[in-house]
Design a protein that fits this description.
heterodimer; A: 242 residues; mainly alpha; 7 helices; 0% strand; B: 227 residues; globular
Chain lengths: 242, 227
């Protein structure tokens, strides 16, 4: 208990010293990097022979999926660390990462059907990876609902940490149980033994997309984290729980 | 003097089951719900197009999931009355033992529903379960352990939130997927007369889920009842 009180005090002295500037240069830079990558993907990367222009959505879909998994992985890590160290900053980090992760998962779930329709001939299919992504969305949407349903800051942090860690543990089980349905997804094309099977220009665009989307994740995470610090500091000044 | 953890767990389970046996509120409502759902499901598709036997496994597992939730919520709901949970927390027993006791009582609850609902499905959907009874019982038990392991932990969390029972399904259902999918698939194979060797993979998945989630949820449980 004492450690969490100490954490709150140290936090208070930190947040009251400076108020985050309204204009977020980092976020603007990350947004510019993403737009730059998309321009390159649309105009300066060859069109795929069989799929045509529909394949362009790949440069949004795959990096968003990567960011979503990264974000949820970090929610689990931050949760476990919170249960150990009881530092509320870890909880704010987990909250921010979960929210950004849900946004990117939503992007994956929207771009997936848009791509699947012309290429697979169907909007939705109960393919292993699709289903897994959908359930991830459910788990972390539930995580956000749980956070909204608890007023006490410390209790909210504990419960979210438990759910965040269990959510990560659930992934292999959902994957295994839906894998029995034949998967339509392509096998790994970059991270596999041997040379990547993408032409060089496409590979460069893809790697740029991964980098810029990760940058966008960090920028959004940072912005969201500052928001929850500010919110907590404000609640503290008003004498309540954030 | 501290009780051994298993003894304490048994005492807690017996306490919950005694309360349930004397009031019978949760069990009866879950049971009536299960039977009504079995009947309503029958009218939700065209029986001339899909044979009843093909739908029976899915119906069975959807119903166990939802009627189980009714009992899981009550498990910690009864501890809210007069802050009975404080008595449990003040007792010289390990928190893990409280979890095991609660989970055991919930397991008896879910298995009790299954023991009535499986024969009811067999009757209303005209499928023969007698020839595959031992294998079906094994699947039902393995799956019930998985549902209860996760549900008991989330039940203890949900009851302390503003949304209370509304939150339990939101948290639990994604976690029930790796239980319900193998259980329903394995049940379907068995009812179609396939040999048990064909459901081996599903059974192992259920077993692995049980081992991992019983352990992890037991370890996580003390974090949900700190005061």
């Amino acid at each position: 208990m004492t450690s969490s009180v100490a954490a709150r005090d140290s936090l208070e002295s930190r947040t009251q010293s400076g108020i985050a500037p309204v204009f977020d240069w980092f976020l603007v830079a990350a947004g510019a990097a993403v737009i730059g990558t998309l321009v390159r993907a649309m105009a300066f990367t060859p069109v795929e022979l069989r799929q045509g222009p529909a394949q362009k959505i790949f440069y949004v879909h795959a990096p968003s999926a990567w960011v979503a998994f990264l974000a949820f992985g970090l929610v689990a890590v931050a949760g476990l660390l919170y249960l150990w160290l009881r530092d509320l900053r870890l909880d704010r980090f987990a909250e921010s990462s979960a929210e950004v992760g849900v946004v990117f998962t939503t992007v994956v779930l929207i771009t997936g059907p848009l791509w699947g329709r012309p290429v697979w001939g169907t909007w939705w299919t109960w393919d292993a990876r699709l289903t897994l992504t959908l359930f991830l969305w459910f788990v972390y949407a539930g995580y956000l609902v749980l956070r909204g349903a608890i007023d006490n800051q410390e209790q909210r942090a504990r419960y979210s940490a438990v759910l965040g860690a269990l959510g990560a543990l659930l992934i292999p089980f959902i994957h295994l149980s839906v894998y029995m349905f034949r998967t339509l997804h392509p096998q790994p094309i970059v991270m596999k033994p041997g040379a990547p099977s993408l032409p060089n220009e496409m590979l460069v665009t893809l790697l740029m997309a991964f980098a810029s989307f990760t940058l966008l994740y960090v920028a959004l995470l940072r912005a969201r984290y500052r928001l929850s610090e500010a919110r907590s500091a404000l609640a503290h000044q008003e004498g309540g729980d954030a | 003097m501290a009780l051994s953890a298993l003894n304490a767990a048994w005492l807690i389970a017996r306490k919950d089951l005694t309360i349930e046996f004397r009031t019978r509120t949760a069990f009866l409502s879950a049971l009536v719900f299960a039977l009504m759902a079995i009947v309503i499901f029958y009218f939700s598709w065209d029986p001339t197009a899909i044979p009843a036997g093909d739908l029976a496994p899915g119906v069975m597992w959807v119903i166990f999931t939802f009627s189980g939730l009714l009992g899981l919520h009550r498990s910690f709901g009864i501890e809210q009355q007069d802050r009975a949970i404080d008595g449990l927390l003040g007792a010289p027993v390990a928190r893990e033992a409280i979890y095991l006791g609660k989970a055991l009582a919930n397991l008896v609850f879910v298995v009790g529903i299954q023991m009535v609902a499986i024969p009811a499905v067999a009757l209303f959907y005209n499928v023969s379960v007698i020839s595959v009874a031992p294998a079906l019982a094994a699947i039902a038990l393995l799956a019930a352990v998985g549902l209860v392991a996760v549900g008991t932990l989330f039940g203890s969390m949900a009851v302390n939130t503003r949304l209370a029972e509304l939150l339990l399904p939101v948290l639990s259902l994604p976690f029930f997927v790796p239980v319900v999918v193998p259980a329903a698939q394995a049940t379907a194979k068995l009812l179609n007369g396939r040999p048990i060797a064909e459901v081996d993979g599903w059974l192992r998945l259920l077993g692995a889920f049980d081992i991992v989630f019983v352990t992890v949820c037991m370890l996580a449980f003390p974090y949900t009842i700190e005061e």
